[in-house]
Design a protein that fits this description.
single chain; about 160 residues; 8 strands
Length: about 160
């Protein structure tokens, strides 16, 4: 494996409520397998799958709806390393390289985290600052970078 192959291709999404842009609250979900870890929905990109296909599939799998409008995409891949405990279960990968999207829930969207294979036990909409303070430490740099970019673009 080359160095770039050690990072699992992944798609991630910052979800804003259907009240956006008047309300700039973003979706955070609490993982059901890691105590008190809150994150943005994300998931692997399957072999041969287009990035936006993975985006909509992961939304459906993780929050029960893909009824969203894509507002923007972070312009490059961004990566992070897994902490040792997680790395053991993710071999041969040492981390993930991600494509981030800012998406808005449509008015008809119904969030249901009790999906076929639930990854989350709770969710809420929070301010950008709250999202950063609640995020897992090993993802914090990625979250700060992506949120900073969307803020600079006037989107958050």
């Amino acid at each position: 494996m080359t160095q770039k192959d050690l990072y699992r291709p992944n798609v991630a999404m910052i979800i804003v409520s259907s009240s956006y842009p008047s309300a700039r609250e973003i979706f955070l979900a609490q993982r059901n397998d890691l105590l008190d870890v809150w994150q943005f929905p994300q998931g692997g990109i399957d072999e041969g799958e287009e990035i936006q296909e993975a985006l909509f599939r992961e939304l459906k799998e993780e929050i029960g709806t893909d009824s969203v409008e894509v507002i923007a995409e972070f312009p490059e891949w961004i990566s992070y390393d897994f902490p040792p405990k997680i790395a053991q279960s993710m071999k041969p990968f040492v981390g993930q390289k991600q494509r981030y999207f800012l998406v808005k829930l449509k008015e008809d969207a119904v969030i249901n985290i009790q999906t076929q294979h639930p990854e989350f036990c709770d969710y809420k909409f929070v301010s950008v600052d709250e999202a950063l303070s609640m995020s897992a430490s090993f993802k914090k740099n990625v979250y700060e970078c992506v949120i900073s970019y969307f803020k600079q673009e006037g989107l958050l």
